[in-house]
Amino acid sequence: MTASNTLQGSEPMANTxxxxxxxxxxxxxxxxxxxxxxxxxxxxxxxxxxxxxxxNVGRSQNRVSEESVPRLVSAFGLAxxxxxxxxxxxxxxTATVDQFPxxxxxVSSAQxxxxxxxxxxxxxxxxxxxxxxxxxxxxTLMANISTISSDMSQFHSLTSExxxxxxxxxxxxxxxxxxxxxxxxxxxxFQVTGYRDLVSEPIDAxxxxxxxxxxxxxxxxxxxxxxAQASALMGSALISSSAAxxxxxxxxxxxxxxxxxxxxxxxxxxxxAPGLDSAINQLLQLxxxxxxxxxxxxxxxxIIERQNMLLAQNQTIAVELLxxxxxxxxxxxxxxxxxxxNSAQTISTARILLxxxxxxxxxxxxxxxxxxxxxxxxxxxxxxxxxxRTLAKGxxxxxxxxxxxxxxxxxxxxxxxxxxxxxxIQRLNLVEQLAQELSERNDELxxxxxxxxQAQDQIVAREKLAALxxxxxGVAHEIRNPLNFINNFSAASAELLEEMAEIYEEFEEDLTDxxxxxxxxxxxxxxxxxxxxxxxxxxxxxxxxxxxxxGRGGGETQLTNINDLIHEHSLLAYHSARAxxxxxxxxxxxxxxxxxGELEVVPQDMGRVFLNFVANAGYATxxxxxxxxxxxxxxxxxxxxxxxxxxxxxxxxxxxxxxxSGIPPDVAAKIFDPFFTTKPTNEGTGLGLALSNDIxxxxxxxxxxxxxxxxxxxxxxxxxxxxxxxxxxxxxxxDDLDNExxxx
Length: 744
Description:
Blueprint: H1 2-10, H2 28-94, H3 100-124, H4 129-193, H5 205-208, H6 211-238, H7 243-267, H8 276-285, H9 293-392, H10 407-506, H11 513-552, E1 558-561, H12 562-580, E2 587-591, E3 598-601, H13 603-630, E4 640-647, E5 651-658, H14 665-668, H15 688-698, E6 702-708, E7 712-720
Parallel strand pairs: 2-4
Antiparallel strand pairs: 1-3, 4-5, 5-7, 6-7
Helix pairs in contact: 1-10, 2-3, 2-4, 2-9, 3-4, 4-6, 4-8, 4-9, 6-7, 6-9, 7-9, 9-10, 10-11, 12-13, 13-15
C-alpha cells in the first residue's frame, strides 16, 4: 500500500483525464455552502426570535416571581395580620384574668408579624400612598392596643377589689346589725318593763321614760337605718355604669357617715352596744379614701370609658386600614395578572414567528433537495458509485467517464488515476500479504516469549520457597535446643520445689503463720508458673516438629486427631499472616464434630492443606475488609473464617468457609491448575491449591469448592474413614507455604 500511495501521489492532477479546476460559482461546495448558509441564516433568525421571546418571557416571569407574586403574598399576609390586629383590642377587653396573659402574648405576636410583613412590603414599594396610609393607621391602632393592654392589668385589679368589697360590705353590715339590733330590743324592753337584766331591780318609770332614754333609743334606730343606707350606697357605687353617677352617691355616703358618727358619739357613754363603734368604723372605712368603694368604682368606670373610646376609634381606624390593605392586594393582583398576560402575548408572538420561519426553512430545504441534490448531485454520484463498485470487483479494464466541471468531475478523474494505479498495486498485494503473515507470526512469538518469562518468574519464586523451607528447618533445629533446655530445667525446677516442700515440712513448726502463708503462696505460684512453662514449651516443641516435617516433605501415615490438626494449623496460618501484616484481623470459628476421632493421614501433608485453606480464606476476608474501608462502606462487616468437621458413616467431611469476596465462575474452574493465581507475582505462585489437590487425592479424597461471588467461598474436603493407598506418589516439592490459591 505504501508503493501505491507513492505512485498515486507522484502523478500530477494535470494528467487526470484532462479535467480543469471548476470555477468558483460552478463548484458544488459553493452551491452547498450557499444552501447551508441560507439554512443557517434562517436558524440564526429563529434563534434570535427565540432569544428575544425567551428574554421577554423571562422578564415577565421575573416580574411575576420577583415582584408581583412576592408583593401579592406579602399583601395577603399583611391582610391576614391586619385582621388579627383589628381583633386584638376587643379580645383584650373581653379576656378574663386567666386568659389575659395568653391573649396578650398572641396580640404581641400578631403585632410583630404585622410589622414584619409591613416592613417587607414597604421595601418592595417604598413610595406607595397606601403604604403611608397603612403606616399611620397601624401606628395609631397599635398605640391604642398598647394603651388598652396596659389598662387591662389595672382594670382586672380594680375588678378584683370591687369583688372583695362586695363580699366585705354585707359581712360588716351583718356584724354591725348583730350588735345594734339586740341593743335596740334591750332598750325597748327596758323602757317598757324597767329591767336592764333579769337579776337587777326594775328602774322607776320616770327614769326609764325620760328624754335621755328615749333619745338613746332613737339614736340606736338611726344607726341601724344609716348603716343600711351606707351599705346600699356603697353597693350602688360598685355596680354603677357611669362615673358621673358615683359622685352624688359618695356625697350621700359622706352625709350618712356624719350622722352615724353623731349617733355613735351620743351612745358611747351608755354602753348599751359595746363594740358597735369598731364594727361601724370598719364598714365606713370601706367607702372612704383613695382605696374606698367609690374611688375604686370611679377608677374602673374611667378605664371602661377610655377603652370604649379607644375601641370606637380602633373600629374607625380598622375600616380605613383594611380598605388600604385590600387596595394593596388588588394592586398586586392586577400587577400579577398584567405580567402573566404580557408573558402569554410574548409566547404567542414567538410561536407565530417560529412557525413562519420553520415553514420557510422546510420549503427551502425541499427545493434544494429536489432541484439540486436530487437532479444534479445524486444522479451523477450514483453513476460514479456504480463505476467504483465495478472497480472494487476487479474490473479495471474500462475507463472512468469524466463529465462536467465540478468536484464530481474531479472525483471521476481521481478514480481514473486510481484505476491505472490499481493495476500496478495488484502486483504488490502478494508482497504485503506475506508481510502481514510474518507480522502475525512475530506477535505469536512475542506471546509465547511472555508466557515463558512468566513461567521463569514462577520457577524462581518456587526455588525461593524451597530455600525458605530449608532455612525454616534449620531455624527449627536451632530453636529445639533452647526449647529442650527450657523443658528439662522446668521439670528439674519442679523436682527441686518438691524437695523444698519436704524440707519445709521439717521446719514448719518453727515458722509463724504469716511466714507459712507466704511460703505456701510462693510455692503455689512457682508450681503454677512451671506448669505454664512446661505446657507452652511442649506446644512450641510441637510447632517446631511440624515445621521440621514441612521442611522435609512427605512422611508416614499415622492416626491423627483431625480436629486438633485443623486447630493447630489454623492458628499457625493466622499468626503467620499477623507476622506479615500487623493490621491483619480475622475471627476463627470452630464447629468441630466431637465424634470425629482420628483418621489415618500424613499429618504434615494434611496440615499443609488446611494451612493453605485458612491462609487463603484470611487473605480473601482481609482484602474485602480493606476494599470496604476504602469505599467507606464497611458497615458491620467482620472478617470470619468458619472451620467445620463432620463424620458420616463412610467419610469425614472437612470444610473451611470464609465471608470474603467469593470466586467468579471463570476463575473457579482454574484454581486447581498449577501456576494459576490471581494474586500479585510477589504474593503467590499458584501452586498451593494444586499441591493441596494432589495431597487430598493421594489420601483417596476429593476437594470441591462452593462459592458465591461477593458473598462467600467454602473449600470442602471429603476423606474416606479408611485410607486407600494411591498408585502414584507426590512428586511436587512440598515447600510451598505462600498461601496462594482460591480467593482474589
